[in-house]
Amino acid sequence: MVKLSVNVNKVATLRNARGGDNPNVLQAARACVDAGCHGITVHPRPDERHIRRRDVLDLAEVLTVEFNIEGYPSPEYLDLVCRVRPTQATLVPDPPNVLTSNAGWNLRGDTSAVREAIRRLRGEGIRVSLFLEPDVDMVERAKEVGTDRIELYTERYARSFATSEGEAVYAEYRRAAEKAVDVGLGLNAGHDLDLRNLSFFAQRTPGLLEVSIGHALVCDALYMGLAPAVKAYLRALGYK
What we know:
alpha/beta, single chain, 11 helices
């Protein structure tokens, strides 16, 4: 069964918009865990516009499920992750000023920095995942640089779902997933997955282990409540 990791960045965004500590990130994370999710994801950025360093440290102390920390492998990010030692670190190629993750790694050039980041994180016992486009060549290169998993960047899948291009676009994701299985990489996925498109992707994608969902789940939670939203996404993944 595919695991669900809930990204709580948007909870922190709402908190920061007003100041103070409401909504409380830890309380929201606990509610997600109590509702049955398998992990919590955060993506701290240098400007702390949503998740803050303090949030990461506080979550690490209380979580009883997998903790996944996304981010660009800057020295500050690597120091924080190595201090916390979460279950998984997902490395993304985001420059500091982007609104949200918008591309996977290009591993065709100099990969020395990525290799060193992976080596350091794995040396601390942290599973490493690389954020990737559905590109078979990139999957093979990801294996070469030493990562444990890849996370397929699913925005294009989500945008094309139920359109005339949908099947052709999804075929690229399936080929990338098959290559990951073939070369022995674990497979995650995330970005713009929602209750409309999640079941198809989870049921059809070979080797899929985990999805990370934040924005859509928090949007749904505004209408149905946080715990019911988590449970709805679990049902979309096939859980009773």
